[in-house]
Amino acid sequence: MKRGICTLSVFIFLAICSATGSAAAADDWEDLPELIFQEYVEIETVVGPNPYSEKDNDFIVVTKYEEEGEKAGAPGKRKGSGDQTRSLNVYLVTGLIVLDGGEMGIPYHSSLIVSLKSANKKVSVQTVQQWVLSDSDNDGQLDQGRFQKITRGTEGETLKKGPVEILGDKLKSYQAYYDEASRELNSKAENLGK
Fold this sequence. Notes:
Layout: H1 7-18, E1 22-23, E2 42-49, E3 58-68, E4 84-98, E5 105-120, E6 125-135, E7 144-152, E8 158-165, H2 168-173, H3 175-192
Parallel strand pairs: 1-8
Antiparallel strand pairs: 2-3, 3-4, 4-5, 5-6, 6-7, 7-8
C-alpha cells in the first residue's frame, strides 16, 4: 500500500460528502455507470490524516481506480460514440481510527465516489456526472446518496444539476453496486502490496 498525504483530494472528497442536497425527483439523477475492473488504467491507495478532525489518530484511506476510453463507464447495452471520450474515476474513501501503537485501525465511515467525465470532440461539450454513496456509520448499509451533473458548453457556460439526494428505494437499489465496487477496490488494493 502506498502511504502518503493527498490533502487536496481528501478535501475535495469530504466537501462532496458533506455537501447539502435537496430531495430529488425521479428524473433528477442518472443510473450509475458500469465498472470494468479488469481493464484499469490506474489503481492507487493513499493514507492521510483527516483534515476535518482534531484527533491525531483519525485518518482517511483513499483507494482510487481509473479507466479511460470510449468504453469507460459505458452502460452495458449502450455503445460510446466515436466522437465521445470518457474517463471514469472511482474512489473508496474510508474513515479510520488508528488504535494506540498504530498496528490496527477501526473503520467508522465509508463512501464510494463515482465520477464519469465525458467530452464530445466535435462540439467541445464536457459533462461530469458524480455519485456519492455513503455508509456513514459503517454498518454495511447505505444511508446517504447524492448525485450531481455539471455540463460545460461550447461558449464556456456551465449548467449544473444538483447535488440532489438519492433517497429510499433508489438508494437501496445501489447497495449491490456499492458492495461489489468496495470489494473489488479493496481486493485490488491488497494485491498492489504483494
